[in-house]
Amino acid sequence: MQSPLPNESVTPSYRSGTAARLAGIPVATLRMWERRYRVVGPQTSARGHRRYGPEDVRRLALIKSLVDKGHPIGTVAHLPLEALRAMSAESPRALAPRSPAAASELRLALVGEALVARAQAAAERFPGLRIAAMCADRAEAAAQLAGVAADVLAVELPALREDAVAWIDALAATVGARRAVVAYRFATEAAAEALRRRGHAVLHAPLGLAEVAALAGAETAGVAAPRLGPPPPPRFDEHTLARLAQVTTAVRCECPRNIVDLLLSLGAFERYSAECEHRSPQDAELHRYLGQVAGQARALFEEALARVAQAEGIALPENRAAPAA
How far apart are CA 244 and CA 264, in angstroms? Predict the structure, then answer.
């Protein structure tokens, strides 16, 4: 929060251009850091101009130094001055030059039991990714990732709350990751927004290696998603699914209704992926892949719904949708 500066002659103060020059950063970077991360809280002069004191400049210079050493801006932007000084005094870790072959790989640190299991099954399909570390037990992540060097930290949580934000920031700093990709089943809006302000990517679980690669940035352009065939057309339309959900309310087993909910979500995501705006050919390829994944999953759950309905003695309503051409 900005506060008025009652007497500008008491301590030296600088306008944004001078403060940025003294800190060694472009003015545009200073403004972006303030807007996105609120790295400093400049005072305002009687005329409404932002004025930066010596401590603001020192803080900006320390943050710039740490970012140059590989620390993501989101992990250091909110640290107190003493913590920034301590980090700057430490020997930079995991910053040794990489071989040309290693430089073309994206190093990942993965945290979360389900994410680790999916990565182990799919890793061979992503030659451009190198999994530097995997930690299934979130409680052991800090200890297991000590000494690990990774470009991206990927975390999958069943629930994302505000108390996880600092933990994720600390893990990203531990491995020297540029950013974290965080997936969740349930989350508070405050926690998700706090992570986004710090420069991390936040999305609904499940999280796969293709999504991690796409969200990691331009360095992953060479990472190709596995090829999938086109999914079959929908077996049930939304009207049919809605009727089936009402029919199953009297059934003791909740599986049919739960599968209906999943089918509605998968169908919506399949359509969303097909209609999503594309910023680049790589972006278009990713959304094509995501749509195919959703379609294949939707087809599997349609078959599962038919089997569960048969086992429960539920007559499936006739689909009103016309057959796909």
Answer: 12
The one-character DSSP state at 189 is H
- Summarised one tens digit per residue, pLDDT across range 182-237 is 989 888 988 988 888 887 888 888 887 777 776 664 333 334 445 556 788 888 88
Structure tokens given for 153: 């930290």
Q: Does the model's pTM come out above 0.85?
A: no
Chain segment 92-128, per-residue pLDDT in tens: 444 444 444 444 578 889 999 988 888 888 777 777 7
| Residue 324 in this model has a pLDDT that exceeds 50 | no
Which helix H or strand E contains 282, and what residues bound it? helix 281-312
Residue keyed to tokens 């919506």: 268
Q: Tell me which of 3.30.1330.30, 3.40.50.80, 2.170.150.20, 1.10.1660.10 is the CATH number of domain 16-89.
A: 1.10.1660.10
Our separate counts of H helices and E strands in the chain read 14, 7
Q: Which residues of 159-170 are buried (b: 16+ CB within 10 A; e: fewer)?
A: ebeeebbeebbe
| Correct CATH for 107-220 of 3.40.50.2300, 3.20.20.70, 1.20.120.1200, 3.40.120.10 | 3.40.50.2300
The better pLDDT of the pair 106, 247 is held by: 106
Q: Compute the distance between CA of residue 196 and CA of residue 64 in angstroms, rounded to an integer.
A: 20
CB-based burial label for 21 (10 Å; 0-12, 13-18, 19+): middle
Could you tell me the two tokens for 126? 């992503």
